[in-house]
Amino acid sequence: MKQRILSLIAMALMLLVLFTACSDIGTKTDTDAGASEETTVSSEETTQQETEEKTHNVFGKFEAVTVDGEKVDQTLFEGKITMVNIWATYCGPCVKEMPYFETISKEYADKNFQIVGIVSDVYMYSDGSHDEGLVSQAKSIIGDTGVSYVNMLPSAELINGKLSTIKYVPETLFLDEEGNLIGESYIGSMSYEDWCGVIDSVLENQ
Question: What stretch of H or E contains 107?
Answer without folding.
Answer: helix 92-107
